[in-house]
Backbone:
C-alpha cells in the first residue's frame, strides 16, 4: 500500500512538470469548453462536442499516459530502482494507474458539467467513462510493458489510439465502419453516451464491453507474465 | 571480523560469451573492497549477480549469510546500490526524488533532508534533478543508496567520468561510510582511486580474478619492477632496474660527480596491472 502511494505521489509531484502527460489530461476537456461555446450550427445534436470529444478523450488520454509513463521509466531505468526497492510490479501499476484514473476522472467531470448531465444521466455517463478509462489504461500499460523506450511506445500508441478514438467518430459517417467498429469498446462507449437521456444501455453493449474487459485482462496478464516489468 | 560478502565459483555467460569464470571472493565487515578491471571485464555483471539483479549460471553468492538469489525485502533494505544505469527522476527536484524512497521505506521528510545534507546537496534540494551537474547527480544517487542506512554498499564506478574535485567529494563520502563501519564493494578502472580507497582489491581480467589482496601487498609482489631514477646534473634523467648491476653504475656516476638526485620508484598498481594482463587499464 505505501509503495503504491509512493508511486502515486511521484506522479502527483510530476503533474505540472510532465508536459506530454499534462496536455493529454487537458486537451479535450479544454477543447470541449471552447467548441461548445464557440460553435453553433443549426440542427446540430445537443452537446454534440461533449459526446464526440469525451469518447476521443477516453480512447486517447489514459492510453497515451500509461504507455508513456511506463516506457519512460523503463528507458531511464527508474523503474528498475523502484523494483530494487521492493516495489512489486502490481503496486507500481496500481500507483500509476490510479493517478491516471483520477486525472481522467477530473476530465470526465468537465465533460459532465459542459454536457449538463444530472442525476441518473450523470451516473451513467461517469460509469461509462470510468469503464472506458480502465480499458484504455490496460491497453496503454500493455504497450508500455512491451516498449523499451518512449519512442517505440509512441510508435505503437499512435495507431492504436487512432483506432480507439477515431473509429467511433468515423462510424458516424459510414455504416460499414460502424459495423466493424462495434466490437471495440470505444464504439460501444460512444453509443452509450449518445444514448444518454434517450435510449437505455443495451444488453449487447454491456456484453461487448465485458468481452473487451476480459480480452484486455487476458492479453495483459499474458504480456505481463512473459515480459514482467523489467 | 565477520564475512559480509562471499562468492564461490560464480560463472556467467551471455550466449556463447563467457563473462565471469569461477569468481571467488570474501569481503569482511567494514572493508572497502575494489573490483578493478578494464571495460568489459565483467565488473557490472558481478555486482548484478551479488545483488540479485541477475542470476548466475553456476556458483553461489551470499550477502551477510543470505543467498543473493533470494533476498527478502528486509535484507535488500540493508544493501545500498548505485549503478551507472540506475536512473533518477529528471523532472523532479532532488528532495522529491528521495521522498519517493522515503515513502517506500516509511521514512520522514527530515530523513530526506538529512540524506541530502550528508552528500552536500542541501542547497540543491529544490533543484530539478535533470539540471544537476554530473557530479551532483552522482551524489544524489549516493544519497538514495545511503538513505536506508544500509550495512553494505555496492557502488558501480561511483566516481567515473568526474572531474578531480567531484571525484574527491565522492571519495570522501565513501570513506566516511567506512568510518561508520559500513562495508563497501566498489568497481573502478582507475588505479589511483583503488589505491586511495580500498583495503583490498581484486583485478578482474576477461572474467577471471588475476590478482587479489591489499594494494600494497600486490605491489610488493611485483617488486622486481622496482626502478632507480637518477637525475643528472646536465638535466637528463636515467631510469635503470634496481639491482646489483645498478650499484656499479650509480657508484661511477656519483664518483664522476654527475648526479643531482637519486630515487627509487615502486611499481604502482597501474604498471602491475599492465604487466599481469598485458592490457592497459584505463578505458
Ligand atoms: N545483458 C547482456 N547481454 C549480453 N552481453 C552482456 C550483457 N551484459 C553484459 N554483457 C557483456 O558482458 C561483458 C562484461 O560486461 P560488464 O558490463 O560486466 O563489464 P564492466 O567490467 O562493467 O565494463 P565497464 O567498465 O565498461 O562498465 C561485456 O562484454 C558485455 O558486452
Ligand atoms: Mg560496468
Residues:
Amino acid at each position: 500500500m505505501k509503495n503504491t502511494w509512493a508511486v502515486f505521489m511521484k506522479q502527483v509531484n510530476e503533474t505540472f512538470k510532465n508536459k506530454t502527460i499534462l496536455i493529454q489530461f487537458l486537451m479535450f476537456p479544454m477543447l470541449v469548453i471552447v467548441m461548445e461555446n464557440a460553435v453553433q450550427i443549426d440542427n446540430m445534436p445537443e452537446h454534440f462536442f461533449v459526446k464526440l470529444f469525451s469518447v476521443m478523450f477516453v480512447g486517447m488520454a489514459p492510453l497515451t499516459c500509461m504507455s508513456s509513463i511506463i516506457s519512460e521509466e523503463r528507458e531511464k531505468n527508474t523503474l528498475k530502482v523502484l523494483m530494487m526497492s521492493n516495489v512489486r510490479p502490481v503496486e507500481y501499476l496500481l500507483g500509476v494507474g490510479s493517478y491516471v484514473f483520477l486525472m481522467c476522472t477530473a476530465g470526465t467531470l468537465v465533460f459532465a458539467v459542459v454536457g449538463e448531465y444530472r442525476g441518473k444521466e450523470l451516473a451513467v455517463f461517469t460509469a461509462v467513462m470510468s469503464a472506458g478509462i480502465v480499458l484504455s489504461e490496460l491497453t496503454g500499460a500493455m504497450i508500455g510493458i512491451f516498449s523499451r523506450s518512449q519512442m517505440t511506445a509512441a510508435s505503437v500508441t499512435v495507431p492504436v489510439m487512432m483506432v480507439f478514438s477515431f473509429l467511433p467518430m468515423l462510424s458516424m459517417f459510414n455504416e460499414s465502419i460502424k459495423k466493424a467498429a462495434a466490437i471495440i469498446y470505444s464504439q460501444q462507449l460512444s453509443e452509450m453516451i449518445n444514448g444518454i437521456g434517450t435510449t437505455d444501455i443495451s444488453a449487447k453493449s454491456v456484453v461487448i464491453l465485458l468481452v473487451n474487459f476480459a480480452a484486455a485482462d487476458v492479453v495483459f496478464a499474458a504480456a505481463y507474465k512473459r515480459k514482467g516489468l523489467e | 571480523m565477520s564475512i559480509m560478502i562471499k562468492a564461490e565459483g560464480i560463472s556467467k555467460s551471455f550466449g556463447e560469451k563467457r563473462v565471469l569464470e569461477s569468481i571467488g571472493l570474501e569481503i569482511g565487515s567494514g572493508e572497502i573492497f575494489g573490483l578493478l578491471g578494464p571495460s568489459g571485464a565483467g565488473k557490472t555483471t558481478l555486482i548484478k549477480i551479488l545483488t540479485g539483479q541477475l542470476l548466475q549460471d553456476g556458483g553461489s553468492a551470499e550477502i551477510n549469510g543470505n543467498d543473493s538469489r533470494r533476498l527478502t525485502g528486509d535484507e535488500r533494505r540493508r544493501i545500498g546500490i548505485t549503478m551507472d544505469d540506475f536512473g533518477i527522476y529528471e523532472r523532479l527536484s532532488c528532495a522529491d526524488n528521495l521522498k519517493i524512497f522515503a515513502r517506500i521505506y516509511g521514512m520522514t521528510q527530515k530523513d530526506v533532508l538529512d540524506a541530502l545534507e550528508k552528500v552536500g546537496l542541501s542547497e540543491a534540494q529544490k533543484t530539478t534533478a535533470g539540471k544537476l551537474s554530473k557530479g551532483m547527480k552522482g551524489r544524489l544517487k549516493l544519497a538514495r543508496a545511503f538513505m536506508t542506512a544500509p550495512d553494505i554498499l555496492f557502488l558501480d564506478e561511483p566516481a567515473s567520468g568526474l572531474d578531480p574535485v567531484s571525484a574527491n567529494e565522492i571519495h570522501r563520502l565513501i570513506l566516511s561510510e567506512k568510518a561508520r563501519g559500513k562495508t563497501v564493494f566498489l568497481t573502478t578502472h582507475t588505479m589511483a582511486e583503488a589505491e586511495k580507497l580500498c583495503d583490498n582489491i581484486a583485478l578482474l581480467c576477461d572474467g577471471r580474478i588475476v590478482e587479489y589482496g591489499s594494494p600494497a601487498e600486490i605491489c610488493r609482489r611485483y617488486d622486481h619492477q622496482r626502478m632507480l631514477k637518477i637525475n643528472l646534473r646536465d638535466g637528463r634523467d636515467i631510469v635503470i632496474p634496481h639491482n646489483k648491476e645498478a650499484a656499479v653504475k650509480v657508484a661511477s656516476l656519483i664518483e664522476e660527480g654527475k648526479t643531482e638526485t637519486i630515487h627509487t620508484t615502486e611499481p604502482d598498481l597501474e604498471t602491475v596491472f599492465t604487466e599481469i594482463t598485458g592490457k592497459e587499464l584505463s578505458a
